[in-house]
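Treating backbone geometry as a discrete language has practical consequences that deserve illustration. In the encoding step, the backbone of a single protein was reduced to a row of integers, each denoting a local shape. The amino acid sequence and the backbone structure tokens for this protein are reproduced below.
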Amino acid sequence: MILQGRANGSSFAYRSELRHAKRIVVKLGSAVVTRGDECGLALGRLASIVEQVAMLQNQGREMMIVTSGAVAFGKQRLRHEILLSQSVRQALHSGHNQLKDMALPVLEARACAAAGQSGLMALYEAMFTQYSTCTAQILVTNLDFHNDDKRQNLNSTLRELLRMNIVPIINTNDAVVSAPEPNSDLQGVNVISIKDNDSLAARLAVEMKADLLIALSDVEGLYDSPPGTDDAKLIDIFYPGDQQSITFGTKSRVGLGGMEAKVKAAVWALQSGTSVVIANGTHPKVTGHVITDIVEGKKVGTFFTEIKPAGPTVEQQTEVARSCGRTLASLHPGQRGEIICQLAELLTERKEEILAANKMDMDLAINAAALLKRLSLSPSKLNSLAIGLRQIAVAAQDSVGRVLRRTRVAHNLVLEQITVPIGVLLVIFEARPDCLPQVSALAIASGNALLLKGGKEAANTNRVLHQITQEALSMHGVTDAVQLVSTREEVEDLCRLDKMIDLIIPRGSSQLVREIQRAAKGIPVLGHSEGICHVYIDTEADIDKVIKIVRDSKCDYPAACNSMETLLIHRDVLRTPLFDQIIDMLRTEQTCSR
């Protein structure tokens, strides 16, 4: 992979671009580095983070770590020393080794930091050595950034370390640093006060022109209200202009900063050209790959961008579809049939608009015969689609609420098995725009909400077909029951929405099906296996039927997934007039390669 870094000094606009980040700052908050008792380090968590940083470093990236933990490490060490000292004194005083309850004094943070810095750095060095990666420690204070000479020296030192493939580990010098001043996070656009490791990481990332700042904390990311409240929702993409809509809670259980401090630092870094992601570094299920997932562009934490999202997030689309889907399921079967019939009518009435959009996709598509065949729509294909939709409308009359089985369990107690909607379906399909109205009609008939993720090759056609589908749905007030996912969502990210999607249906190649089955996290996948698309010609076969069947199974629509793949011929048919007729027909249709 070629690591290009950010272009023209601007931050990355989309998550998918993060994989190009070359210079990365990883900020480890106190809640990430320390144990739950705030005395000592979370060694297993720290080891997994070190492994990810070392792996990215070995890929050719330039990694820097801004770490907390010196105070917690020193507190553990000093408590041990105090307990040992008190036990010795008490043993000498009492004349025996019986220990009484001993009260520990309150430990001063600067002393803890002084006692813990060397041990923390030794631990990092030992862990990185396992991956043949060298580290260097740098302690800074606010003055190191405000004094031009010191700032230039710091910049020069960091660049030289990065040039030598060394991972700098930076921390505030808490043994001598002054107490933070309240409300001094920002002092103008070009300056940020170093009051905690959030502001330090932001200032360092901007100073070193880092491509990406990853801030790990003990929450999943940025929420629109304090985490833990009933209506709190995780924000996937944060645009600084929406900051006034956020309600911040209290600071974290350890450390100096809270989410408000993180957001201020993140916005400052973003405006200076560094992309930022805030994510959870403490969750045992994701800690082992959270950093690499972010760099790969996966949907983890909150991504800060200066590009305002063009539309609703996929989570918002899913919520709207689920709510509207309940109304769709409650409609009378005849009403659902009317929606499908209206969709069929619109396909023929608006065919010029559909074909114009399809021509745009065809003009942009690569010159591959199979792709163009799948992508292409025609008046006859739209007419065939309309006929098929009307057939689905008839079948919709008993799709929902049909009694499949009735069992009398006891007197006045009857057990019934009744068909009900599944919920929210995610259908992923490749460059086949005709799939959209077909799947939409089936979802409407069965009373299910629907998310559609189509191939980008058919983006224009899909957009028009979706508009027509929603127009048909509007006749009974369920416009939003079918949603088209048109954002830059990776399929793998969609497959992780196990709390919002009830069933995934991939329509396409066997490779697509396998990828979806592998990526789905806790969501059932209705896959399909590869069919055996063979035609066999026996010695007793009727000549006229043979020619018609072979032509129809292969030549009418070669790009179809169920078109003939193999023509099996009885050996006695070889070198006969029938065989010659078949070969001539296939050559005429240009589907015979040998």
